[in-house]
Amino acid sequence: MYKKGDYEVEAEGHHSTVKLRVSFDEEKLAKIEVLEENETQAFVDDLKDRFIPEVVVNQSLNVDAISGATKLTKAVTSSVEEAITEAGGDPKTFTEAAHVTETKLPDADVTADVVVIGSGASGFMSAITAAKAGSKVVVLEKAGNLAAVNGVKVSGPFAVNTPVLRERGTTLSFPTCDELHSLGTEFCFD
After folding, report:
1. Distance CA 60, CA 23 (A)
2. How many CA atoms lie within 13 A of 39 on its CB side?
3. Cα–Cα distance for residue pair 80/117, rounded to 1 Å
4. What is the pLDDT of residue 169?
5. Which of 7, 61, 89, 150 has a Cα-to-Cα distance from 113 of 20 to 30 A?
6. Measuring CA to CA, which residue among 181, 180, 174 is closest to residue 159?
7. Which residue spans within the chain are E strands per DSSP?
């Protein structure tokens, strides 16, 4: 079914070229290794810890993408398709395979005063504010970790004049609305 061997392939991710070694035995895709990348670490961790193992175990590229890392997911997917072709296989067997989802966790009853759906900047701050006010808060997030939706993308007004910056005596300013408009920004709040 496949030509046994290691196939080095690459595609453009979000920040860098992602280089992989895709290994096949005669019967199946055996292993995917990330050789080189300069992508956001939280996304690379999810790629290595969840996405790649699911592709290999299920012999399918029809697995849940990495939330917040579409370009990285597509880079890996297209590279694996290329390696399948080089190994004499048909990528359709991987792209048309049944959709794979992660193992469902057991149901649990949870009681909360506030439920926040999504832990982006607004959800994250809402959850913190409600918790500081004494509410029991549950946050529902589709990403594998909070860094994927916050820590790796936080900039601009979300990081201006924070208590941490003030404690360290550091200042960070944000351009005025006039400055942003001159750069082509279509919206700004004073």
Report:
1. 15
2. 28
3. 33
4. 73
5. 150
6. 174
7. 5-12, 17-24, 29-36, 114-117, 137-140
Residue 124, pLDDT score: 78
- 59 DSSP 8-state letter: T
| The pLDDT of residue 8 | 97
**CB distance 156 to 174 below 8 Å:** yes
Successive 10-residue mean pLDDT values, the chain, 190 residues: 96 93 96 93 87 92 83 93 96 82 73 88 83 89 62 51 68 58 52
Which tokens sit at 150?
């916050």
Q: Report the alpha-carbon distance of residue 134 to residue 11 in Å, rounded.
A: 48
pTM of the model: 0.62
Which residues 6+ apart lie within 8 Å of 96 measured at CB? 62
Sequence-distant (6+) residues with CB within 8 A of 10 are: 17, 18, 19, 20, 79
In this structure, the number of other CB atoms found within 10 A of the CB of residue 162 comes to 13
Q: Return the H-helix or E-strand segment holding 67.
A: none
How far is residue 62's CA from residue 57's CA, in Å, rounded to a whole number? Answer: 12
Name the residue with tokens 């990348």: 37
Distances (CA, A) of 57 to 19, 80, 93: 21, 14, 14
Give 118-172 as a DSSP string: --SHHHHHHHHHHHHTT--EEEE-SSSSGGGTTTTT--GGGGSS-HHHHHTT---
Assigned token pair, 77: 């997917």
